[in-house]
Inverse folding.
């Protein structure tokens, strides 16, 4: 983030968070939160041949390796 | 061909019988795109050669007397966050420019198996985040009814393409109203199916627990045809359901109990928009439905709940865009991982996407997780219970899709003001319920849509209501004068 972006975002994000805080008015002490369920069930974990094209979109490669910026 | 030969849902049988050549029809759609899309900018890419080749193949098969499928010859436009092999998938974001997906989405494969032909990929708010299609990294789409106004979003390109006659129908995705909002603003029919009804495999994720792929078309019959072709369980999407898809028999709406939800007409609604929707309710009553008033008390809280959940899920989903594995490359020779990563993401993501990632990340931090995310999931459960209760007295619930007419392009609003117009659409995503937007009239020449919500997996009832409105209520449909 650039410095002037950070200044502007501070205001914008605060007003959005204030709006989110209106949920404090709702009485939820008896409610259990929504949880996702997997309607169709999980498929078996079977190894399938991978699609060779998945690596075509890699911006920088060296041989069959993906080239990434240095971590250390 | 010099004009649309028939409603798109009639086209497949005409292609099958040889009355219409798919090649001629598809070429006609591309002529429209050439004439109109320089003004509208609905498409990010098109591929005429690929489409014409597929159309010729259909014509050959029809000539041999082979079955060509229930969508044969229909030219469809696909939102650019849904993968189609051989087209780029950019999500309207610079960070994915040039990305070629190695496979097609299940919904696209199913439509193609039935003979639909993909014409191109349509514009959207970046990653689906917006309701105007102005947040695209590749420039805005304009509303074909009034070029000074937005087409809605985020599936703005998909809705504009249909209303301007540049596609028979289209696929969009809906996370908080992204099919219904542009359908309303462009005067077309847009269906958000029940969560799990259509496979999300190949839909680039924004907020997994909320979004669905769905059809947009000029009328209920076309939307119905496309919906039935793409719906159903898919082993590639474990949240997809195997509940059988009800087919849309002509049952009419006599005796249908319609609940007009008080909160949908609440603060922020333009009075003329509310009046237009009320008039439409009267017409539904005249067509045999029983209309009554009802209330969903937690609805005013749906919007903050939606944004908390959507932003939390987005911050997690969008962390994969690092510029290393696909999309925009990190600068060569940049010092270290963190600097390169930050550079790519600040150059690649637009303003609204960055805002949502920041908020979503904050919401999920340990100290705030319970206060925002868990509380939001609780209010979401409360909302679901209230809808279930309302469906004990009513078959469908109804209100304006959007509380306003399409805003002017470039209108200065704060992010929060912009979020507020999603007030009526987000509840269907939070509860997983199916919802449709149907054209119901105009205010000052600008389209107004009515939203109908049904119990889970009852898209057939929604389409029934839409069919009656299209046939009996005579609202003018595509294409508008501005784009002809």
């Amino acid at each position: 983030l650039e410095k002037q972006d950070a200044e502007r975002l501070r205001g914008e994000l605060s007003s959005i968070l204030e709006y989110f805080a209106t949920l404090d008015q709702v009485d939820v002490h008896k409610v259990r939160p929504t949880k996702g369920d997997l309607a169709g069930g999980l498929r078996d974990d079977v190894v399938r041949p991978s699609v060779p094209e998945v690596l075509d979109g890699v911006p920088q490669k060296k041989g069959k390796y993906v080239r990434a910026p240095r971590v250390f | 061909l010099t004009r649309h030969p028939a409603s798109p849902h009639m086209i497949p049988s005409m292609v099958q019988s040889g009355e219409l050549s798919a090649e001629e029809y598809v070429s006609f759609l591309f002529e429209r795109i050439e004439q109109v899309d320089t003004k509208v900018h609905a498409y990010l890419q098109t591929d005429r050669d690929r489409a014409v080749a597929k159309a010729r193949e259909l014509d050959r098969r029809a000539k041999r007397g082979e079955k060509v499928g229930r969508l044969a010859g229909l030219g469809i436009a696909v939102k650019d966050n849904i993968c189609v092999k051989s087209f780029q998938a950019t999500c309207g974001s610079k960070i994915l420019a040039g990305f070629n997906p190695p496979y097609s989405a299940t919904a696209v494969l199913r439509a193609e198996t039935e003979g639909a032909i993909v014409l191109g990929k349509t514009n959207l708010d970046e990653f689906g985040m917006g309701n105007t299609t102005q947040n695209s990294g590749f420039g805005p789409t304009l509303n074909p009814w009034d070029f000074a106004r937005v087409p809605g979003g985020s599936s703005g390109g998909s809705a504009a393409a249909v209303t301007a006659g540049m596609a028979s129908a289209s696929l969009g995705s809906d996370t908080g109203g992204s099919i219904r909002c542009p359908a309303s603003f462009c005067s077309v029919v847009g269906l958000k199916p029940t969560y799990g009804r259509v496979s999300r495999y190949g839909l680039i994720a924004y907020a997994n627990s909320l979004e669905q792929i769905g059809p947009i078309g000029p009328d209920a019959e076309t939307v119905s045809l496309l919906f039935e072709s793409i719906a159903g369980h898919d082993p590639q999407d474990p949240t997809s359901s195997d509940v059988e898809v009800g087919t849309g028999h002509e049952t009419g709406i006599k005796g249908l109990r319609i609940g007009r939800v008080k909160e949908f007409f609440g603060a922020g609604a333009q009075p003329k928009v509310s009046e237009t929707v009320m008039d439409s309710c009267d017409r539904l009553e005249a067509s045999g439905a029983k209309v009554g008033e009802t209330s969903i008390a937690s609805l005013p809280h749906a919007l903050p709940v939606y944004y908390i959940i959507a932003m939390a899920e987005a911050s997690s989903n969008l962390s994969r865009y690092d510029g290393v594995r696909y999309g925009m490359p990190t600068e060569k020779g940049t010092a270290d991982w963190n600097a390169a990563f930050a550079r790519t993401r600040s150059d690649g993501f637009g303003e609204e996407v960055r805002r949502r990632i920041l908020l979503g990340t904050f919401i999920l931090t340990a100290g705030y997780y319970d206060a925002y995310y868990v509380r939001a999931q609780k209010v979401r459960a409360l909302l679901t219970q209230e809808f279930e209760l309302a469906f004990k007295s009513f078959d469908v619930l109804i209100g304006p899709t959007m509380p306003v007419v399409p805003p002017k392009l470039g209108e200065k609003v704060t992010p929060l003001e912009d979020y507020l117009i999603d007030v009526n659409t987000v509840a269907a995503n939070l509860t997983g319920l199916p919802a449709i937007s149907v054209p119901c009239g105009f205010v000052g020449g600008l389209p107004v849509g009515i939203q109908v919500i049904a119990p889970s997996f009852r898209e057939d009832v929604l389409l029934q209501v839409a069919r009656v409105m299209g046939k009996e209520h005579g609202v003018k449909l595509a294409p508008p004068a501005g784009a002809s």
Remarks:
- The CA atoms of residues 168 and 375 of chain B lie 43 Å apart.
- Chain B is about 40% helix and 15% strand.
